[in-house]
O-acetylhomoserine (Thiol)-lyase
Amino acid sequence: MERETMCIQAGYQPKNGESRMIPIVQSTTFKYDTSEDMGKLFDLEESGYFYTRLANPTNDYVAAKICALEGGSAAVLTSSGQAATFFSVFNIAGVGDHVVASSTIYGGSFNLFAVTMKRMGVEFTFVDPDCSDEELEAAFRPNTKAVFGETIANPALIVFDIERFANAAHAHGVPLIVDNTFATPINCRPIEWGADIVTHSTTKYMDGHDATVGGAIVDSGKFDWMAHADKFPGLTTPDESYHGVVYAEKFGQGGAYINKIVAQLMRDLGPIPAPMNSYMLNLGLESLHVRMPRHCENALAVAKFLEAHDKIAWVNYPGLESSKYYERAKKYMPDGTCGVVSFGVKGGRAAAEAFMKELKVAMIATHVADAHTCVLHPASATHRQMNDEELLAAGVSPDLVRLSVGIENVKDIIADLENALDKVQI
Ligand SMILES: *Cc1c(COP(=O)(O)O)cnc(C)c1O
């Protein structure tokens, strides 16, 4: 199947007389005829449903669709993108372990790693995604368990060199985890470039309508845990908390990582999505392939308009030929990047704030990457926990305005920007 067809049909095939749409199985629990039947499920001897915290059919249909879109072997949904990011790393790195991460990742991921996971005993080394080979090499330690990056960094819009980081990770016997939220599998499939695990905040383009917060983790099934058994004892030695199961043996290379997340991390920490939310996420996925090209087309027109405007100091959009990342974006995302454009208004922080007050079509919102055009000043919102040094390392200058271009008629979006810029005094 092509991706467009997967958006509509993957993950759920109704049988004769069954509902055409995925059913919403809004039930916490599932009934069995005998205790033995249920016991087999608890022993992981048979697959089936018994409690929604561990698995639910609606959630599974949608996870299977995202898995197909990314070209993975197994996937699980989480209640937020943050939960997906956390589980993707915590599933293979615990106290005493170390992870190499790109310094330009989403602010929430940065805090999770640098503050909360650090407190849990996991150390992170943040590297500039455009660092030299020597610097990248020097970031690895004997206890490094993973490398983490973001296809298109939110909000710095830096395009991650997936192939390069995958090669470095593999040379050190560890997987590459890529947050593919901004590109979506419509524009980029990181697994095709060597990524081993892909994460999503489905809250963004996948849902696409400001309706539900959610996340997803997809395993490529390509990383050979057993070949690096000493590094990943959680997957390659018995889990005493689950009848001594060895995930890599029981579920094989394609199923071990996701089954461990479900059996262990979901069991103990519990961030599952509500089936109703998964149903709504699925509605978003059914039009993802139609919306993404429009987001990209509108964003490119907006970026070109801004670039030509004399009150604009700079524009950053990887689809612009003037972008430092234009060639890299063409390689990884030949059909387009995303709908997010960042820029600076001449006059810095104060001018940016004055300009934003005049916007009417573009609404001020923390949100990004959905059907509605919205705008944000990260230094005073999403990234306000960061000091100036951290802001610069994250690729966020104090004057940066992040414009998430929606799928309205682009003439209205540009007219709105033009009107607001006319009113700003520099
Ligand atoms: C929003 C976002 C997240 C966090 O997702 P939530 O659904 O808000 O928890 C992670 N990564 C990226 C790139 C994001 O944009």
